[in-house]
Amino acid sequence: MPLIPMSSDARPIVSIENLNVGFAMRRGALNVLHDVSFDLYRGKTTCVVGESGSGKSVTARTILNMVPRPGVINSGRIMFAPDDADARDLTALNPRGKEIRSIRGGRIGMIFQEPMSSLSPVHTIGNQIIEAIRLHRDVGKKEARRMAAEVLAQVEIPKPEKALDRYAFEYSGGMRQRAMIAMALSCHPDVLIADEPTTALDVTTQAEILDLMNNLQRDLGMAIMFITHDMGVVAEIADEVVVMEKGRVVEKGDIHQIFDAPQHPYTRKLLGAVKRLEEPASAKVRPAADASEILKVEGLQLHFEKREGFLQRVTDVTKAVDGVSFSLKQGEALGIVGESGSGKTTVGRCIARVYNPNAGSIDYAGRDLVAARGGEMRDTHKQIRMIFQDPFASLNPRMTVKQLVAEPLVVNRVVKGKELEDRVAHLLTEVGLEPAMMERYPHAFSGGQRQRIVVARAIALEPKLVIADEPTSALDVSIRTQVLDLLLRLQAEMGLSFIFISHDMAVIRYFCDRVAVMYRGKIVEIGETEQIITDPQHAYTKALLSSVPIPDPSLRGKRQRHRYREDA
Amino acid sequence: MTDAPKDRAEDEPHSATLPAESHTHDAPIIEPDHSANQVAIASQWQLTWWAFKKHKLAMVGLVVIAFLYLISIFAEFVAPDDPSQQNRRAVYHPPQMIHFFDRTEEGLSIRPFVWEMGRERDPETLAVTYVPTGEKIYLELFGRGPEYEFWGLWTTDIHLFATVNPRDSFFLFGADRLGRDMFSRVIYGTRISMSIGLVGVAISLVLGVTLGGLSGYYGGRTDAIIQRMIEFVLSLPTIPIWLALAAALPPSWPVYQQYFVITLIVSLVGWTELGRVVRGRFLAMKNDDFVIAARLDGASERRIIFRHMLPSLTSHIIASLTLAIPLMILAETALSFLGLGLQPPAISWGVLLKEAQNIVSISQAPWLFIPGGFVVVAVLAFNFLGDGMRDAADPYVQ
Fold first, then answer.
1. How many CA atoms lie within 13 A of B225 on its CB side?
2. What mean pLDDT comes out for the span A251-269?
3. How confident is the model at residue A317 (pLDDT cuts 50, 70, 90)?
């Protein structure tokens, strides 16, 4: 635990004062940061939290004097080491000058969200770290290599000497992020800026990285600026919290103060949205006890074959789904939870027959979906609908909302003409959008609104079963609950059954009656949601649950982390 | 960077409890002003046009190209003279400037004219030189010149501008070794050179989109076969093949038939590039969520391809076509320059440049290189236009 005496003798290392940053846009200047002021302290972790577009990443880049184009710093100062003799204003330095470059990477390190795209694929990890060291320190190659191995050991990468000669693609996601941290630490910076470093990682990996950063901070005593949108992560790692909304700092203070006595309504809302996901939704309608089974999946199997060469010979097989069985009752919501690569999305797509399973049976209301062809399949597609993860990718940007929502009605020749328009208007009202918006194109809508359009399209044919594939993970927390509540309402009104795929235990707990935990193509545990969460049986489920960050700083460090490694 | 600044105002009105009421607010892209509504209902083409307009060089390119095509459509009208009309008394006549301010005894008036040039022979070297005679040849808008058939519809002798006295002649760009008016020849050349690109590209388009689309959408064996075919075509040495084909064209064929066949030859190689682009896009798009969504909606294969996939490609296709046209123009110019392409009496920029192949033209008649300038301007304009279109092509990716 980083237990450092509070504010009185903590000296700021970076002091941001009244920062204003604007972007030159087509229609005039757009201010993205308004009077942002906060400090980063030596030996403390400051979490900057806010939803997308709140200006947290722009702030981080401005500290390094790398304002993304077409941004300009309008006013304000960023003082580096304000108490020292060599205090300087980072915004006043030439962005390409020597001085700022010695600070970037040398005294302020940065790690990014996507560890894959921030590491060069054509150089070994070792070479990249050695280069970073030699840029800032006058050491020989041998010495630099020794130091690189040392930092890799520091970030708990096993066999650091060997790891130096590996390439980024040979590392897993978590290992890559460790390597990024190692690179950032290689010059012993005073400040480490971490921009959503765990967002792209699975929750078990995220827990490991957070533990690592806590340890490093304790050992090295540097200042960490940790950018995140996740209140749970904040509770795990922060000493100080800065809450940003729409380019303004709305609240800042000590972690306990923010969590126990939030002042600003936006902070309260953020916390509220997270806290609501800590328990099952109150509005949830449980399926009737004697409800009939609508879907029965047995021994489902899908292997992806990699084919190469002119003769298309099979060279490699990935077992994406490896013998999955479950059943779903009328009006029930079954969650499928698992990490990336566990096969949860593939299961959903097999049921919708986007993919054709290799083996197993899918029995939908007495109909064998694996064998279904042509007309029968089309008829099934009217009853089983899908909601996709990314509302930006699943709406054709070239069609208006009316065309998008009407598409299933048109191609299935349900209604046409004036009646069609009425139907679309009705559907839009149903999902909480104005019918007047139907002439607009998807680009005019925010993420949450787009997901509502996707939902409207899904329910247009009055389906019985909806497969929702991570419908909320691309959305901000506050909007997440709105969309979930919408789905709950529709479920109650229309008696829908759901297969709800997610990596997020909190969302599953809020929405699902039962949950299936998937790991490497297999269901390792299935049962009532509350039961699984309170009393997990399988070791993997335990690991998964113990990794979920809990938005309560007082519980920090009191939980035992489980790690799960399957014997290969 | 996940938080692009443009998302700023897009965030929904924050209300965690009752979603349905909070949507009376619109979600404009940037700031809630009146033009936001316009952006919201803007179609792909409008967004593309707005993005394109910001590209200054591309706008210049667009204007130049529009101008060149106007000239080629109205070539007979714009050219003051018959391009194959020979004039023994005007061999290598130098270019004449048009003057607008006419100073006469009655005072200054605005009336376009050129100074008449007289032909003189140097008594020692016997070289022909042209010296001003001091006489003025007056010009007028919509004057009368040689008769022509306007688009094959009717016969007329009205030109955009001509000498007041039909027996006079003037040479804006000078004259060639047979005394033909270069200006009129360049105008007629523009027609053929600018349109050879269009025809060639149209053929490339059909071949490229069809074969590339099939290759990308169906994949597997179809893909393998078409890709091998493209590799085969690309491995053919083009110049020897052009040589052989040009030699094989029967000289008895009319000029325009030869022209058509040459275009065909050029475009048979040109489609491969587009085919690969289209294939790549189809391959990537086939697994996009919105295409899967359309499939789950129950849309037929035809509807998926034509209604959902192709519209996403049109802008890219147009951009790559714009970049392909200058290549065609250059290919035709190069072929004709080498004497493999169009043959006189056909007139194209390449044919005109062939006339400038000798030392005489460099030393005595540098104006014969003017068609080269047109090639450069046209190709540059197309490249600027294509660049701008490519940047603006996908308004949703920023």
1. 6
2. 89
3. confident
Q: What is the mean pLDDT of chain B?
A: 77
Q: Residue B342 — very low, low, confident or very high, per pLDDT cuts 50/70/90? A: confident
Q: Which residues from B are below 8 Å from A438, CB to CB? A: none
- Candidates A113, A245, A380, A482: best to mutate against B (most CBs of B within 10 A) is A482
Could you tell me the two tokens for A416?
């046409």
Amino acid at site B102: D
Number of Cβ atoms within 10 Å of the Cβ of A165: 11
What pTM, to 2 d.p., does this model score?
Answer: 0.73
| Residue tagged 């969200």 (tokens) | A113
Q: Which of A68, A276, A485 sits opposite B19 (nearest CB)?
A: A485
User: Could you give the C-alpha distances from A477 to A489, B11, B14, in angstroms and in order?
Assistant: 19, 12, 11
- What is the predicted pLDDT for the residue at B13? 40
Q: A225 - beta bridge partners?
A: A46, A193
pLDDT of residue A310: 64
Average pLDDT over residues B48-76: 86
Residue A303: strand, helix, or coil = strand
Q: ∠ CA A494-A423-A462 to the nearest 5 degrees?
A: 30
Q: For residue B16, name the pLDDT band (cuts at 50, 70, 90).
A: very low
Report d(CA B9, CA B4) in Å as an integer.
11
Q: Which amino acid is at A494?
A: M
Q: What is the pLDDT of residue A273?
A: 79
Ranked by mean pLDDT, the top range of A196-200, A486-490, B77-81 is A486-490
User: CA of A403 to nearest chain B CA: how many angstroms apart?
Assistant: 11
- Of the candidates A32, A34, A39, the one whose C-alpha atom is nearest the C-alpha of residue A16 is A39
Contact A174, A205 (CB under 8 A): yes
E-strand spans in chain B? 99-104, 107-121, 128-141, 144-150, 154-158, 161-163
Helix (H) or strand (E) holding A467: strand A465-469
The answer to whether the bond into A70 is cis (omega within 30° of 0) is yes
How far is residue A271's CA from residue A255's CA, in Å, rounded to a whole number? 12
Give the residue with greater pLDDT, A189 vs A25. A189
Task: Quote the CA–CA distance of A495 and A33 in Å, as a whole number.
Answer: 46
For the purposes of burial, counting CB atoms within 10 Å of the CB of A494, is it exposed (0-12), middle (13-18) or buried (19 or more)? Answer: middle
- Using the predicted structure, report yes or no on whether residue A145 has a pLDDT greater than 80: yes
Q: Do the Cβ atoms of B11 and A440 come within 8 Å? A: no
Q: How far apart are CA A184 and CA A178, in angstroms?
A: 10
- The mean per-residue pLDDT over the stretch B346-364 comes to 79
Picking from A52, A78, A4, A555, the residue whose alpha carbon sits closest to that of residue A240 is: A4
A526, pLDDT greater than 90: yes
Q: Which two tokens stand for residue B46?
A: 């409008």
A245: which 2 tokens? 């909304």
Check whether A147 has a pLDDT greater than 50.
yes
For residues A524 and A505, the answer to whether their CB atoms sit within 8 Å is: no
Taking alpha carbons only, the member of A186, A126, A128 closest to residue A154 is A186
Q: Report strand pairing: A497-502 vs A514-519.
A: unpaired
What count of other Cβ atoms lies within 10 Å of the Cβ of residue B189?
Answer: 28
**B44 and A398 in contact by Cβ < 8 A?**
yes
Taking CB atoms and an 8 Å limit, are A53 and B8 in contact across chains?
yes
Is residue A363 classed as helix, strand or coil in its secondary structure?
strand
CB contacts of A447 in chain B (<8 Å) are 10, 12
Closest CA to A112 of B1, B325, B213: B1
Asked if residue A386 lies in contact with residue B290, where contact means CB atoms within 8 angstroms, the answer is no
B4–A53 CB contact, under 8 Å: yes
What pLDDT score does A467 carry?
A: 93
Pairs of CB atoms within 8 A across A/B: 169
Return the pLDDT at A241.
Answer: 92
Interface test with A, best of B2, B43, B44 (most A CBs within 10 A): B2
Of A196, A393, A441, the CB nearest to B290: A393
